[in-house]
Batch of 4 targets.
Target 1
Amino acid sequence: MQRLGFVTLIGSEHVAADGALLLSSLRQFGGDISSAPLWVFHAESTLPGAFDFDAKDVHPVSLELEPTPHGIPFGAKVSACAHAERYLAGEIETLVWINPRALIIQPPVAFQLDQSHRAALRPVHIKNIGSPIDQHPDPFWQAIYDFLGVDGSLNSVESYVDLQRIRPYFNTHMFAINPKLGLLEAWLDAFKELTEDDEFTLEYCADDLHRIFLHQALFSALLTQQLAWNQIRILPMEYSYPLHLHDTIPLERQAKSLDELICPVYEDTFEYPRTLNGLSASEHLASWLRSQPGASPAGSGTVQSGRE
């Protein structure tokens, strides 16, 4: 059994180049994890041509991605995660979900789970729809807690950019989880049930933010339902560091260079150096980025939204 494997979703052609850049960075800078297999889920009707499915230890998996009721975003992602868990539970011990719009700059050893930790992930970058720990949960969060039978008052996390103390609310751009838990399958079941519930969606997901981040809220609540708090590893800031928010991060929390990060993330198509948002990079790393087919030179390429 492989100890660790990566899973991503290529939903369209324009994301394929980002996925190729991610794979290249893993193989170049992943250290002992550099040879880990990567399963690439994609729509049955689309085989992204920019991605090298012939590369060693890259496994394409076609998946019929059905529209989510009421147009709630990220249904394809939740479905892909559940399918990956079901598909890989007998093959790997740690499933690392990673959005294509990420880089691996150093060996991501904190992804590897152990006997003490069943999941590893980062809190959200900003509070957004998060629930302040010093206030009663608002109707949206309370409805989710009631639906899952969760007590949301016991633990808290801090959003990295705006330093807000909130109830457990995790970013899902990347995370590691034990696939034997069945938590991703439970995520899909809960997501389907709530998005098919007209009363819930009309009452609690009437605005864009609650529609966009419903999947993250559900995932966060499920983690606190199914795992003890000490079974969740909070990854350090070098993981999921948001390049797109770099200039809004408090100065004392800003990375000093790209080289000190492990798995930074970004939105929109990667363009060097624009995507770094003013963050410096060593000549070695900058030269490598410039050499990558997926790293468009500044000012070229089509910008596509990757909001998450």
Target 2
Amino acid sequence: MTNLSADPTHLQTEPSETVIQYHRDALLGMMQEWTSSHRFPPVLLLTGQPGIGKREVIHFLARWILCEKRESLTACGQCFSCEQSKNGHQVNVIEILSDSGEEGGSLKIEQFRELKASIGLGTHGGQNKVILIPYVEGLTPQASNSLLKLLEEPPAGWIFLLTTHDTTLLLPTLVSRCQTFRLKPLKNEILTTLLAQHGVPSERQWICSKLAQGSLKRALVFAEDEVWEQRQLFMQFLRAPQRYLQPVMEWGSQNPQNFETLIDLLEHFNSDLIRWSASHELNPHEFNTEAWLNIDLAEALDEYASSMVKVMGSVSLARQFWMNQAERLAQLRIELMAPLNRKILIQDLLFPWLEVKNL
């Protein structure tokens, strides 16, 4: 495999069989159509939320497309092309990655100039050439225009496989040249299996699968010891915000990952509290936690929510407060795009919880 990223250690993505099988079932109809027509789309764009295996899927598709047998809608694993893929030396595949090799990096025009320079070079055995561009939202404006020119008239035998979590971040003219397929979030049962494969303690697996809302990447973050402990700390913050405000602020402002995780955690708690208010109005003596994200903290959240109702005077007023915080969190997601001071943003976010507790 040829790689136009700066870091060859990101060259190979070994797909999880569980993830591939889950998405393969959804892709079967499209793959069967390609097989029967003996034609592949020149440009396929896979979309879907971060952390669901989009990059793994385009690696799977590349191997299948280049397989010399391709009889059972999966790569045979035995032909010359499949052997090359296993060894990480598939010469008919080019992957274009950012310097970091991960989502959030920039794809630069120099990488596409190098790609264009390879036009006209032969492929092994007269096969197709597959160009993988994961995280295509990282294209710089110059790189976007360069890729767009390539896609206007793709070189004969070239197949582009792209991924993005949000098509609105791409040029509309770029999206219009793609066949688009949206991958579904991973089911909780699949995430639980994957977390077990990653060695996550059993008592965390189901909780983290619910918190992740379909993303393996997020599930693994929530399962980390540090984040798991911070989740407990945040529950303490809700109970005694004056005492725990500083530790929560310090942790959340350490780096962008902590900041985003803190926002995720607050959204989770806030959503459960809104669910609690709806259930409480129907039956004050019972509450249904089946749809809750933090089901292991249900009793603590019930105790906290009941105390908030006493402070604010009614369930409806408490719910309005949590709804207001939900709107603020949504706005904060937008503000994350700007280079603002994280500690100030966290302070602005958490202070209303402190103030209402002091009423």
Target 3
Amino acid sequence: MSFQLETDRLILKIEDDTAAQQVLDFYMRNREQFERFEPTRPKNFYTLAYQMAALTYEYHEIIKGNTLRYYVYTKEQPDILIGSVNFSNFMHHPFSRTSIGYKFDKEAQGHGYAYEACQAAIPVIFSNYRIHRIEARVAPDNLPSIRLLERLHFLYEGIEYQGVEIQGVYKDHYRYGLISTIQ
């Protein structure tokens, strides 16, 4: 497992609870934007205690090989969190799949950071975790995310009717898939 990756412009890191304040700040800055596309959050989600507990749990799950999340920083400002790329719902042989998710600060969008971060993280899933298929679900009105998936060569597979709960309502999502080329 790679705890840190670097690209030309970015640093991707697995974090523990010491990054809780940065993660909380990131969510607070982008609350309105993120909540349009995410499930209902617990009432205490926007607290330091919640983020510390979540990061601790997530770190242990990463160590066990059950999930993977990279927090993304620019090399120019390595102390300011601008996004994350995560892989969840790992299923191993014979299914060999995971789901990808990503979110980026509203100020970091439109600069190609999500593409660059995903391009660095996806090979880790295929090589180190031996996952064969990555799935993505995206709201039909989330055009930047759809463009990102298509640019990453994910293929549109259809509509997942009422497949994801968003703010208390089950909504249709497009489903995309990317198959490993590693044999």
Target 4
Amino acid sequence: MRSPIQQYIIDRVCEKRQAIGMSQEKLSIALGFESQGYISKIESSIESYDDHYNIDHLNEIAKILKCSSREFWPEKPL
């Protein structure tokens, strides 16, 4: 089960991705994965999934989405 901070970050990345019209597949490919499966699994609301982004992913995603990685984090601890 994901922690509240993990889910918060996943949700922010998804929002930023959707705001620029980028598909899960395009983000997966830009991160070097062969299919959208990885991003799809992370963004899934299935409680048994424990996949989440690591710090390196967030840094690369910020580059791809042309934003600061700080935009993925809450202002106050959860």
